[in-house]
Amino acid sequence: MDAARQLILDRIADLGTDLKAVSLALGRNHAYLQQFISRGVPGELGERDRKKLAIILKVNDEHLRSRPVEHIDSMDVASLVDRSKKRKPDQEVRVVGYIGAGAEVHTVDDHEKGAGLDLVQVDFPVKHGTVGVIVRGDSMLPMFEDGDLIGYIRDASGPEQLIGKICVVKVVDGPTYIKRLKRGTEPGLYTLVSANARDIEDVDIEWAARYRFHLPADEWHRLRGAD
């Protein structure tokens, strides 16, 4: 198996998704990536698919350039995915910015460059690629307080898959919030529901991700001090 195909399997395992979901996110049939990896069809991803897949998997699209491969049995692909999923999870979370729970805050989401505001060694396993953001504002009290740390990981999920869930939500040309997601009054628009403040109605969403963990401010500061 060439490096590009192995990278796809590794990143899919890291993100906690699967070949079918990512194929559909590409706008292809559910078996598209399975065939690409196991049968070498197509021999190389087209430019559109390669660039879109790079965004989904959060990798450089040049790393997804592949070469034709010999047929690989589907059982071999399954075992490769399984081995990738068995890798030990990380316990290190990079804090990449702030998130609004009332206050309009623009996050500093530069984790792809290896930077960030802080680094916290948590005392529980997290999936590779999980990042943290610090809550600003009080509109989600009593669930989230100002200064708390929220962990999330961006994957192939779309907003429609997260309706009714509490999510990290990036508004198009706007701030990032922690809110419950609800459908808006028109297709493609969404309402961000607060716990104790007015809803933010009919906004266009750039991306949404379900939050993975929540640490009170004093707890994550304690963990940071223990590093």
Automatic annotation (TrEMBL):
It comes from the Bacteria. SUPFAM superfamilies: LexA/Signal peptidase (SSF51306). Residues 95-205 form the Peptidase S24/S26A/S26B/S26C domain. Pfam families: Peptidase_S24 (PF00717). This is Putative phage repressor. It comes from Xanthobacter autotrophicus (strain ATCC BAA-1158 / Py2).
